[in-house]
Amino acid sequence: MAVLRLTGLLAQEVGARRVEVDAATVGEALRSLPGSLVLDEHGDLRPLVHVYVDGSREHDLGAPLEQGAEVILIAAIAGGEEVTERPRQSSGCRGSSPR
Amino acid sequence: MGRTILVGTRKGLFLIREDDDDGYTLDPPLLAGWEVLHAVRDSRDGTLFACTNSFVHGGQLHRSSDGGETWELAEGLGLPEESGLKLGKTWHVEPGLASQPGVVWLGAEPACLFRSEDGGATFTSVTALLEHPTRDRWQPGAGGLICHSITLDPTDPDRLYIGISAAGVFRTEDGGRSWTPANKGTAADFMPDDPYPELGQCVHKVYVHPGKPERLWQQNHCGVYRSDDRGESWERLDGNGLPSDFGFGLGLDPDDPDVAYVIPEHGAGNRVTTDDRLGVYKTTDGGASWRLEADGLPEPAWSVILREGMDYDAYGVAFGTQSGFVYARPHEGRWVEAARHLPPVLSVSLSD
What we know:
- The complex is a heterodimer of chains A (99) and B (352).
- By secondary structure, chain A is α+β, with helices and mostly antiparallel strands.
- Chain A has a single domain, classed as Ubiquitin-like (UB roll) (Roll).
- In chain A, 13% of the residues lie in helices and 21% in strands.
- A five-stranded mixed β-sheet of chain A has the order 2-1-5-3-4.
- By secondary structure, chain B is mainly β.
- In chain B, the strands form seven sheets. In chain B, strands 20, 21, 22, 23 and 24 form a five-stranded antiparallel β-sheet that branches. In chain B, strands 3-2-1-29 form a four-stranded antiparallel β-sheet, with no helix packed on it.
């Protein structure tokens, strides 16, 4: 058993901010959520949803979940982009327009 | 009248109810926080459908069978992994004919179409469009490479038309198993070599006339058009009373195939209404002439109306602006403000 903690539109869609799921891996836990809100049609994690397991960022959907693990899903609020490497030179503000 | 205007906005779906005294009642938004690019009420059973989008949670379709109290997400909206494509925004939902209970069509990005056989619970991608041999010649418009118009021939469940920006109009005669470009006579002025190509046109909105199904109307990036042969050829109709050939919204009159409404905007580089006003233009002679019908609309004004931002029914027409105003009128009559101060309006849909 793991605990999923949800925010924003995701919590609105599920109707709860906290859901208990019977899942052995992060991917199993995320697949218990409705539709393709968190995982897209190919099973990939949507890039603007971040997953934290017991306080640490987790990228691996196959990562095992300990009994009682807390999985927090944090969705971007104002956009932005996934930065995979530091830009060589700062270009000032990189933020996106608020929506 | 008891009609409802469904208004999709950047932040949720609003229902505007027409009162008996011709006033309007605005309810708080449904699907709060979702970008609703299009919404309809299925006349067959009253189901509400909404093309919902989120930059975090992707393109979705919500449906409600209790007037918006509760919603379910459609399943199966996605593209096969071997296509190398992923679903973007959902743009237009079109319930099937009364003779096709359960059929629902959905148009989306990147230029893909889905069909449901179970009332919108689950969808399957239309393979013939996804694998169309001309797909590599399709180019995205400002809104992306999107399938945004789906219009049905009311006399033949196997014949329907779609509009893709910027690939043009496509017709199927076999329920979606094959698709033929239907753009002869429509311009693509932005194409460097051939302004009248087989495909590549930037259709903004296309409708079959419900009472005369061989007749189609089209507002295009490059002109306003009418076809009287199921899209085999198109006649250009601007330049005879319209201040511009550019616009998005399009309305018809189900009882008169010669009537159409457009809302001209300056052009691709300046997408606001012309002549410093909010002006709707109407033709009653099949597009041979157009006249301004702006009684009740604001002036001066510089408004923006998007491709799903106008709708029509037997009673009248309605449209919404990016500045959050909604206007409606009977086919003969003056415009009335139905709502103001909404989030930017993305779609308007009339429902009994």
